[in-house]
Structure formats: C-alpha cells, structure tokens
Design a protein that fits this description.
The protein is an all-alpha fold. It has one helix and no strands.
Length: about 100
C-alpha cells in the first residue's frame, strides 16, 4: 500500500473540495463544542439561581422562626413574671393569715 503523492503547482476542484470539507468539519466541530459548552453554562447558571433562591428562602424562614421564638420567649417571660408576682402575693397573704391566727 504505497502512497502515490504528486506535488504539483496545479490545484484541482477535488483539492478545493477536500480543503472545504476539512474547514467545514473543523468549523462544525468548533461550533458544536461551543454550543454544548454554552448549554452547560446555562444549566449551571439555572442551578445556581435555584440554589440562591432556596438560600434566600431558608434565610427568610430562619429569620421568621427567630422572630417567632423571641415573641414566644417574651410571652413566657411575661407569664412567669405574673406567676412570680401572684406567688409573692400569695406568700404575703398566707404569712399575714398565719400571723393573725397566732394572736
């Protein structure tokens, strides 16, 4: 299988066609690679945007939960203060009652 190459200054239609096929093939490969990379970047951008949206939603939920917890803590503290005051008043009443019954 010997290659029969002839180098001549003549350019035939077949040579032009071969060169055109090589150029179109390389251009097509480059274009397809570019489009595939572009689609992958778009997919990554969409996933990134979705993750940012989820992060913002989680941050909002965390802030809402913290606010609700503070409100709950304030209500519990207020209730405990009222109970403490009521127990203090009860202790005074019981002590006064015991003091009067000893007389």
């Amino acid at each position: 299988m010997a290659l029969n190459l002839k180098f001549t200054p003549e350019i035939s239609v077949g040579d032009i066609f071969k060169a055109l096929v090589v150029i179109v093939s390389i251009g097509g490969y480059a274009g397809a690679t570019y489009l595939q990379a572009e689609r992958q970047f778009d997919a990554v951008d969409r996933r990134f945007a979705l993750l940012e949206q989820r992060l913002e939603q989680d941050e909002k939920e965390t802030l809402d939960r913290a606010t609700a917890q503070r409100e709950h803590d304030a209500k519990v503290s207020s209730s405990l203060d009222k109970i403490s005051d009521a127990l203090g008043n009860l202790a005074v009443l019981v002590a006064a009652s015991n003091h009067e019954s000893r007389r």
